[in-house]
Design goal:
The chain is built from 16 helices and 9 strands. The protein is an alpha/beta fold. It is elongated.
Amino acid sequence: MADLVTELSDGAGSAADICSRLVPHLDQGAETLAEWIPFAIDEDWLQLGNGQARETSLPPQFSAAALQLRNRGEVIAAFVCQEYATALQPDSSSDWCALGELAHITGRRERAREAYRTYLRFEPDDAEVKQIVRALSDETPPPRAPDDFVKQLYARYARFYEQNMREELVYQGPSLVKELLDRFLDDKTELDILELGCGTGMTGWPLKSHARRLTGIDLSPNMVEVAQTSGIYDELVTAEITAWLAANQEQFDLVVTCDTLIYFGDLRQIFISAAQHLRPGGWFAFTVEKGDTPPFKLADTGRYCHTEQHVREAAEAAGLVVLSLEEEFLRNEYGRAVTGLIVLLQRPFGE
């Protein structure tokens, strides 16, 4: 709050003016803010003005203040600063994008949608923002996330993906899959394993102990490039996974996909193809984000979430048996816990 009030105190507005501009956007009430300003003056953090605006409230300063506040986790104050920055320079695409992100983070869906749509007038080829706008608009979602959205997302994300997932988002997917497989695989170590959406190899490490041969498929060339440096995989392929499954005839003992089905709507498009690549008795282990809107929904994050019922129906359609389906904490998202479904399916013997 202190940084935000300082940015808006240009010497021309009264304390009441500042309060009226800020209170609708902040958690603090008008009384708290009104009490703090005289205290700040007494402490010499603020000085009384002469009614003349000083030339310091320039758009770049508001943008910089918004970024600093966001980096400190003060996202509501950052949002207010970014609103002022964008109003002062409405032709800045980067400011509109930053405003969309901050509105999105703070739960202001309509404002996020408006800001992102304005940004797209300047940057119409931004596939990530297009996907977010689609989600925020509650449109009928496509069968899966567009390839250009996934490629763009991970082109900038690949180099710091693992650090971000482990440290900032407290991502549990690989460890949960490992625990699941350790319970059901009876220490089997000579399996032919296919990992769909292998990314940089976070899930590949726990799979390696069960593998005779480990194959990884991922749409993002940037993620595959990082995975190649790990030395985990016997084979790595850059491909869209439904296309690869349709074109390839290899059989596997275990298929795993972790944090990848979030880019697909109807899970039957993956389950049926994956089942055809399983040997009799083979397993299919995966995670999805748990949803409450049947059968699945494109969430505001641009990712799909799925209900337990849909998972069971898709498994039945693919001829697979549900061995385990559990709810677990999967990761954080904007400071909130994301619940996942951790699932193990099996192709029956004799089929």
